[in-house]
């Protein structure tokens, strides 16, 4: 199939046409001739952006579309973990919920998602397996990376390590880790275990690190040491890494992360100090963004809308200038694709034709106004108009 | 005019009808009989909220609807002030812009606004006068409080004090102050001057206090001393008061503010520490929210949408439970009406019939999802449907 998308403004630049052959953008320019038989799309002068990347979410936890769940959870991390495990027993279907949320993401212009999937001794590999099945079902429409994630603890919950191993054999793409000290009470043991799984399966690693201050910085250093020792540069992500917002020696840590090729995933929560996008980029490192949970028992907030996340990244990092707000967008586009390892990304010749049209003059306006998605293309096909999926 | 609004759910409770006679809600209950000749409105089981209150904005600065303005401003406060003064000379019309933004607020369910209006030696009282004229033009549809605000400094810019005095004589409702040390370099002199104006005109006071840490806490204490000495409890607002997020002795300051009847207005910016809603309420004090500037040369962010602001307040204060998220809504409803002194407020018999219907199960859902405003009533009349003004 050949498509000519006429009169859109890539990244807010001058009007151009995009020629799409099959799944790939093959030409970008003004006044491109329409090949015979090509489908014509009218971009109406709208802003064109590459389709978005969700770099950190939990598709398998969301209660999106299930009716409102009244949150009466206590304030501690363990209250949230316990509440979730208890509510899951009441007939929560991760396959249905993951699919539902993925489709909402697609309708709002996201075609690539890195999602964690809980693995524990109660649910086994069911959530991870469900996400692997969803990944296959959506192949050709969306790219989903599945992280097998020990949400309830790894070493503290015997049997979980074997289940993670099983989830990876069943097709999960990435090994997940979680608070080596705060949850597992054994930073060396936890990190040796997850790096070991990563090495065994030849799969990347993504570690939730909520631990604050020097405790988090210690785990971060242990992670750097193992990444370098195993030659896993470019294969490791630290999610949250709140400690980078806490400690005075953060500049040295940003530099060390950059040198070790470890990327940071941030949700840019307004309520606490977080890694600085500016500092991480200045150090030559990679940082990208995600929603974390959406409408689940952990938090009622967040939307399957990466422009809203970019807005929150911009507000958190106090990006006011247009050139700075473009960085906020990059955390949910180019930088997220790089950090997660999604290939063929971008609004460029040779990239896969995944893109979004919105009514906005500039990239910065798209970020601050989060306008409706007028048109979403994935793999060269129109998949949504005005927030409604084509099928 | 009599209106019966049937089948809505006030604050997410059980379905009820609201009887509105003239501008006032005169009955709330299930199955109210329709008086002869009453206009009937179908609430379709939607959630009903009191119309919102914008507690801190700058209508006269917004470039809403003027086309995108590329922000290339430097990082300092003085860069922002200077840029604004320079761009204003290029044909910016505060009357048009204020009216445009006020109407956007109304379409999204806000009927009461406290707006600052710049007063300085370059523009004189023109912005304040324009807002006073807008206030009169919108009387019967929206309530606007005009704060005469020395944005470019008061004592450092001779002639400004006389202009503020003139703006108040011309009808501005409230005396504005700004960073007594940071901008005016004379905390005693600045505060004596603005309290003096307040006393002279018998009008309340609202002071922008960006000053961090102990410098801000010092100005806060000077403000408390003067409020008590002049018996102005309930007449003074401190806007921003970032210092409350900075200093370890904040608990004593919350208590002192509460005792002095000084309310705090917060914009809950994600990028820095701010006053805690929970702590201020626990101390028995008043705190409410506002957007600050919207789409102006200071910041491209923010929307004339108080549900979005409530969401940001909730995220900033880490309100996850439904009962906590109700507090976030209160910062743009009841608490803002109290803090600003807007009368006849609420979704209750005897209150003015200003209300909003949205598709949401609960108050918390309305805050986190910021759904479209299906119906907005002001003064008992339908003023907007689906975000479009009735006239």
From TrEMBL, chains A, B:
SUPFAM superfamilies: Composite domain of metallo-dependent hydrolases, Metallo-dependent hydrolases. InterPro entries: Amidohydro_3 (IPR013108), Metal-dep_hydrolase_composite (IPR011059), Metal_Hydrolase (IPR032466), Metallo-hydrolase_Enzymes (IPR052349). It comes from the Bacteria. Residues 99-384 form the Amidohydrolase domain. This is Amidohydrolase family protein.
């Amino acid at each position: 199939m050949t498509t000519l998308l006429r009169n859109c403004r890539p990244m807010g630049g001058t009007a151009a046409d995009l020629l799409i052959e099959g799944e790939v953008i093959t030409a970008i320019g003004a006044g491109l001739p329409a090949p015979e038989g090509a489908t014509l799309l009218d971009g109406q002068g709208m802003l064109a952006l590459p389709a978005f990347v969700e770099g950190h979410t939990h598709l398998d936890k969301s209660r999106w579309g299930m009716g409102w769940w009244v949150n009466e959870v206590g304030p501690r991390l363990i209250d949230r973990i316990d509440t979730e495990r208890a509510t899951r027993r009441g007939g929560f279907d991760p396959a249905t919920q993951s699919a539902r949320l993925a489709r909402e993401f697609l309708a709002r212009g996201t075609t690539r998602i890195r999602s964690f999937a809980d693995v524990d001794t109660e649910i086994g590999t069911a959530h991870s397996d469900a996400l692997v099945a969803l990944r296959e079902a959506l192949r050709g429409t969306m790219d989903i990376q599945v992280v097998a994630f020990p949400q309830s603890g790894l070493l503290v919950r015997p049997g979980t390590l074997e289940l993670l191993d099983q989830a990876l054999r069943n097709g999960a793409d990435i090994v997940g880790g979680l608070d080596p000290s705060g949850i597992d009470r054994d930073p060396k043991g936890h990190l040796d275990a997850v790096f070991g799984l990563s090495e065994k399966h030849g799969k990347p690693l993504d570690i939730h690190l909520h631990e604050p201050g020097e405790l988090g910085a210690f785990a971060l250093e242990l992670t750097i040491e193992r990444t370098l020792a195993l030659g896993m540069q470019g294969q490791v992500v630290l999610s949250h890494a709140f400690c980078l917002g806490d400690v005075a020696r953060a500049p040295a840590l940003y530099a060390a992360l950059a040198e070790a090729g470890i990327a940071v995933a941030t949700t840019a929560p307004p309520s606490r100090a977080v890694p600085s996008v500016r500092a991480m980029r200045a150090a030559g490192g990679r940082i990208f963004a995600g929603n974390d949970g959406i409408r689940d028992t952990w938090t009622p907030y967040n939307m399957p809308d990466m422009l809203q996340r970019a807005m929150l990244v911009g507000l958190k990092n106090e990006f006011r200038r247009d050139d700075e707000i473009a960085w906020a967008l990059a955390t949910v586009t180019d930088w997220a694709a790089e950090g997660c390892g999604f290939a063929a990304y971008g609004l460029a010749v040779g990239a896969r034709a995944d893109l979004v049209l919105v009514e906005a003059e500039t990239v910065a306006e798209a970020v601050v106004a989060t306008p409706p998605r007028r048109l979403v293309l994935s793999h060269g096909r129109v998949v949504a108009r005005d927030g409604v999926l084509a099928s």
